## 1
Amino acid sequence: MNEILDLVIIGAGPAGMTAALYASRAMLNFAIIEKGFPGGQVINTYEVDNYLGIKMTTGMELTNMFLEHINELGVEVKTEDVEEITIDGDIKTIKTYSGTYQAKTVILATGASWRKLGVEGEARLAGRGVSYCATCDGAFYKGKDVMVVGGGDVAVEDAIYLSRMCKKVTIIHRRDEFRAVKVLQEKLFKVENIEVLWFTELEEILGDEVITGARVINNQTKEVKTIEVDGVFVAVGNIPNTGLLAGKVDTDSSGWIIADENCETSVPGIFAAGDLRVKSLRQIVTASADGAISVFAAEKYV
Ligand SMILES: Cc1cc2nc3c(=O)[nH]c(=O)nc-3n(C[C@H](O)[C@H](O)[C@H](O)COP(=O)(O)OP(=O)(O)OC[C@H]3O[C@@H](n4cnc5c(N)ncnc54)[C@H](O)[C@@H]3O)c2cc1C
C-alpha cells in the first residue's frame, strides 16, 4: 500500500512549479511529476520580457531560476510520465510508467501544445523566427516583415497586434474568408500594413539559423512564390494536454478543462492550473497564478 499524499502535482511548467512552491510553504506532503525536462512551454522561447521584475531573460534561464527556487525548498521534481489517473472516491490514484501514487488531491498542470503545421523548416526554426505566440514574441519583430498563418480569431488578432510594431504583416489563409468574428475582420481590413493572401498555404519556412523567407502556394492556381519575412507566426490553434482526464471532468467542446476561480474542476479534489483550463490569456504569469491559487484551494480541501 502506498503512502497517501496530500497532493500530487502533474506537470512542471510555470503552473506546476509555482504549485510546488506554495505546497512546500504550506508544508503539504506532496509530489510533483514531470514527463520531460521541467519548464514546460517556456523552454521553447529564447526571450521572455513580460514577467514582472525580470526585464529580459531566456526561457531556459527563467526555468532554471524557477527550478533553483523550488529545489532550495527541498522539492525534487520526479521525472515520470503520468499514464492514468483514477479519480473516483476520496483517494486518487496516479499511475506512471514506473510507479503508483495515491493522494487526497491532484493538481493537473499539464499545459497545452500549440498546433503545428508540420511543414519543412517549422521545427528547425521554432524559437528562431517561428513563433506560436504573438503577444509573447511580437516585440522582437519591431520594424520587420512577418507572416501570420491562420484564419481564426487568434490569427486575425495576432496580425492586427503585429501590425502595430512590424513594418509589414502578410496573413495567409487557405480559404477565401476568415473564420474570425466579423468585428475583428473589419478591423484588420482597415490596417494599411497588412496584406491578406487568400487560398494560400505555407509549404516551407526558409533559413538555417534565422528565417529568411517562406514558400507559399496558392491552392487554386498552384502558383508557388517565396515571400521574404523575418518571422512566421503560426496561429492555427492549440490543443490542451488533458487526455489524462478526458471524459472524467467537465471540459468545453475543445477539451479545455472548466475550472472555477479557485481552479476547482467538476470533480472534488481535482484542480486544473495553467494553460490547460478555459481562460482568456495563456501566459507564464497567469499559469503561475493558477499554481498558487490551486494549492490554496487544495490545502483547504485536504
Ligand atoms: C514559443 C512560446 C513562447 C512563449 N513566450 C512566452 C512569453 O514570452 N511570456 C509568457 O508569459 N508566456 C509565453 N508563452 C506561454 C507560456 O509558456 C505558457 O502560458 C506557460 O508555459 C503555461 O504554463 P503551464 O504550466 O500551464 O503549462 P506548460 O508550460 O505547457 O507545462 C506543462 C508541463 O506538463 C508536462 N506534462 C504534460 N503531460 C504530462 C504527463 N502526462 N505526465 C507528466 N508531465 C506532463 C509537460 O511536459 C510540461 O512540462 C510562450 C509559449 C510558447 C510556446
## 2
Amino acid sequence: MRVTSGSDWRDSIPFETPLLLADIAPGGPARCVACGVAADPLERDRLWVVKHRHPNDHGGFVRFYCADHAPAAAATVAGPAPDAVRAKRAATPRAPRAPRPTPVAERPRPVCPDCFVEVPPTGRCGVCGTMVA
Ligand SMILES: [Zn+2]
Ligand SMILES: [Zn+2]
C-alpha cells in the first residue's frame, strides 16, 4: 500500500460527474488539464473536477477543467443532464452515410500519486508539479 499525503478524496465523488473542485477538494490554485501546464493556475472555485474510469486503477483518476474546457454536463450540472443527453443520443435516427468515427484507444496516462490527477505528456503533474514517470 502506497502512502500518500492525503486521504483518497476520489472515493467521495461519483464517476463522470463534473463537480466544483472547491467543494470537493479545497486547496490552492490548480490547472485545467486542457489548458495545459503553460496556463495560469485557477482558483478552485473556478475549476471543475471529473472522476474518470481508469483501466488500471479501480479508484479512477480525476481531471480538472476550467469553465471553457469542462465537459458539457458541467454547464447544466443542476439539471438531469446525463439522462437527457443519453435519451437524445438514443433517439437520434441512424444517419445513412455517417462514417463511424474510429474509436481512439485512449492510452491511460500515469496518475499523480498525491493528487490522483492524470499527468500530462510532459510527465509533470499540473497541480503539484511532481514528476511522474
Ligand atoms: Zn481549460
Ligand atoms: Zn500532483
